[in-house]
Automatic annotation (TrEMBL):
Residues 14-254 form the ABC transporter domain. GO terms for biological process: transmembrane transport. GO terms for molecular function: ATP binding; ATP hydrolysis activity. This is ABC transporter domain-containing protein. It holds the Pfam family ABC_tran. The keyword Nucleotide-binding applies. Gene3D superfamilies: P-loop containing nucleotide triphosphate hydrolases.
Amino acid sequence: MSSFFEAQGLNYSVRSQSRSFFQPRPARPILQNINLHLAERETLGIIGSSGSGKSTLARILSGLLQPDNGHVSLRGEDFTNATSDVRQKLRPEIQMIFQDPQGALDPRQTVREIVGEPLLPLSLTQEEREQRIVNVLRDVALPSNSLNRYPRAFSGGQRQRIAIARALITKPSVIIADEAVSALDVSTQAIILNLLLDLQERYGLSYIFVSHDLAVIRHISHRTAVLDAGHIVETGPTADIFSNPQHDTTRSLLAANF
Ligand SMILES: Nc1ncnc2c1ncn2[C@@H]1O[C@H](COP(=O)(O)OP(=O)(O)OP(=O)(O)O)[C@@H](O)[C@H]1O
């Protein structure tokens, strides 16, 4: 498998509020020297304890946060240091799904507006846009009368389907899911995970799946990377990571989960 999505040497620090003008606190490293790659149609799981840097990494990989140094590239094209033209071209290719569909969906927008929003920068006719919205709602199995309804009219699982439809509508290559099923009950989690697996097949998607829930990662990921205090300490095929963990951090995560 060719690895078409890569992150090389990523570092990210935050400088906390200065104590005074004369005594700024030093920048605290959140991620250090992160290297990872993703093949087409592959799912990479990222696990780690709370505060290990998972969400920060997800945001850097999606282009929402800028690393201090290092780069993220898609098909060899670096988008961390790219011109705005290149960033604009790559933006539809990498989409993100978050934990809380309630918070991620604007309650004042209809499903048509929410799902169609990523299409606004693209030059499509109104008819083409409407057709894409109708098709993607069908693909995530939302009822056809959803278009003019507001997020509050839907269950948690259906709201996550709306968020998935919005991520899918630009026909991305990579979807980065940060705790995408964590807010759902166990049976809805299973339904949404199976929907994501089905969409991976149909759309030829690659996923980066961030979760504190190891059962979710084991179900969905081909490979898994383990993050500890901003470092990747272990990475490999998911079956190996779960059956034969090499690093203490992985062993304690497994012990805490199973
Ligand atoms: N803007 C910021 N300013 C200060 N510290 C930050 C900032 N963003 C993240 N951090 C710190 O960086 C570390 C990593 O945070 P991050 O949210 O990426 O971890 P996480 O693994 O996703 O945690 P969780 O599983 O609890 O969501 C934490 O210690 C967090 O407090």
